[in-house]
Design goal:
heterodimer; B: alpha/beta; D-Maltodextrin-Binding Protein, domain 2; 22% strand
């Protein structure tokens, strides 16, 4: 199966987008998930609903509002331009922001569940043994929530690879900048170039299946030691 | 683009990055130009080795909206002259707006030989779905609707219509036989790819309003040498020859239809 330089570029761009989205969502999602799992604030439910919104909204709605917000006439885009920076519509940074928002529930939800399952008494016990907050996080929270973290990473990455609508609205199909694999496939079908569309689609099907297969296999192993004998 | 250079460009060295890419023009082209421009691009890049083109194909209306929202296209080819004119008025594109063709529509099918049909045949029962581009925002869709109205067929075929987002999507609906037949751009039907799949019937030009198509360099591309070079190249005999081959004719040029 021969891939053109343009197709490699789309694949590499997709990998960069999904990788960065996953990294950002781990950093943002961990404290957010922790807060949602532990908070008794009356803001916890509204925030949880806000985070889950991309699950039910059509991607076109998210893409449309982000385009208005991040473009040269939007509040964010106009502010950036006033500071001498480029606005964020139709470039990589714009679709990265879109992807972070669109995939957020897929990172926050598993983290929240994993954190909620941690027995508070273990943390208290660690604290009485004079473990600081960082120490407790690394040696108690991380090992106990590794299943949730793995789920968050895999599902966020895979979900971002499978993204189309937000990028179609916000990206503008620019090679090396916003033309990810899903957009390239759409472009091929518009040109009736089904061979090329098949090629890229088959890669996505294979990648997605292998990712999920690996995920289930690892998840089984990761969780295994917790089971009694 | 590697990650590092993304960071650098955002930190403010955008000018540097742009200077390095000044010889590439991003061309936003109406979907009906796909095959003609695929032929034209190598001709242009051979004639002007210093310049490169990056083609982005889609609906004229979508590009207009994207340019309005700051999309970094350097030159814009629209299936409807009104759109680049609007951009010039709003300061998003720079004059002149140059006509490159009067678009023609055809009846096309991969199921039957459409070259033996006329619009009247659309009432036949074998045509359960008929594809046209969305008339409210796709220029070719509006012309298809006018042709159907002109022949008194609109009311009869309207229940059978399905709408493509743009003219390439409309061709795709017919090609996949989601619709047995439909009305698409001559420039697509005259391409080798589509000709190999089915014949076409050229709908007379006086059945619909003229579809004047035009291009303009955008404000984003005003300092882009490749965009200006391509705009000039489009008026050369070599470029016109390719355009005419795909049915993109201007007044004074002869349409060489091999269908009939």
């Amino acid at each position: 199966m021969q891939l053109s330089p343009g197709e490699w570029q789309a694949i590499w761009l997709t990998a960069q987008l999904a990788g960065l989205t996953t990294l950002i969502l781990l950093l943002v999602g961990a404290p957010l998930g922790w807060w949602l799992a532990r908070s008794t604030s009356r803001w916890a439910n509204p925030v949880a609903a806000l985070v889950a919104l991309p699950l039910v909204l059509p991607p076109t709605v998210i893409g449309f509002y982000l385009l208005l917000l991040l473009g040269p006439q939007g509040a964010v885009g106009a502010t950036l331009q006033a500071l001498g920076l480029p606005h964020l519509a139709f470039n990589f940074w714009g679709i990265l922001i879109g992807s972070v928002i669109y995939s957020m529930p897929f990172a926050v939800q598993p983290l929240r569940e994993a954190f909620a399952a941690i027995d508070a008494r273990l943390l208290d016990a660690a604290a009485t043994l004079r473990a600081g907050p960082v120490d407790r996080f690394i040696h108690v929270v991380l090992p106990l929530s590794r299943g949730g973290i793995l789920t968050a990473v895999v599902i966020t990455f895979a979900h971002t690879v499978g993204e189309f609508g937000v990028i179609a609205m916000l990206g503008g199909n620019l090679a090396g900048e916003t033309r990810v694999v899903s957009i390239a496939i759409y472009d091929y079908t518009q040109g009736l170039n089904y061979d090329a569309a098949h090629r890229l689609s088959a890669i996505l099907v294979g990648f997605s299946f292998l990712t999920l297969l690996t995920f289930y296999a690892i998840n089984q192993r990761v969780l295994a030691p917790i089971k009694p004998n | 683009m590697p990650l590092l250079s993304r960071f650098i460009s955002v930190i403010g060295l955008t000018a540097l990055a742009c200077a390095a890419q000044a010889d590439t023009a991003r061309v936003a082209a109406a979907a009906d130009l796909r095959y003609a421009f695929t032929d034209l691009q190598p001709l242009f890049e051979k004639a002007q080795p210093a310049h490169k083109l990056e083609l982005i194909l889609g609906s004229s209306g979508k590009f207009m909206q994207q340019i309005d929202n700051g999309a970094p296209f350097d030159i814009y080819f629209s299936a409807d002259v009104a759109l680049p004119k609007k951009l010039v008025t709003s300061g998003k594109a720079i004059a002149p707006v140059t006509a490159y063709a009067f678009g023609r529509v055809v009846l096309w099918s991969v199921k039957v030989d459409a070259s033996k049909l006329t619009l009247q045949d659309l009432t036949q029962e074998q045509f359960r779905k008929i594809a046209i581009a969305a008339p409210d925002h796709a220029p070719y869709g509006a012309r298809a609707k006018e042709a159907l109205e002109h022949t008194g067929l609109w009311a009869k075929v309207e229940p059978k219509l399905v709408f493509g987002e743009n003219i390439a999507h409309t061709a795709q609906l017919i090609d996949t036989q989601a619709a047995e037949i439909g009305i698409i751009a001559l420039s697509l039907a005259a391409s080798d790819t589509l000709k190999a799949k089915g014949g076409y019937y050229l709908i007379p030009a006086d059945y619909h309003l003229p579809l004047e198509q035009a291009y303009a360099v955008t404000s984003h591309g005003k300092d882009n040498a490749a965009a200006h070079a391509f705009a000039r190249f489009m008026t050369t005999p070599a470029a016109r020859q390719v355009m005419v081959k795909y049915g993109f004719v201007l007044p004074g040029e002869t349409l060489s239809t091999n269908a009939r």
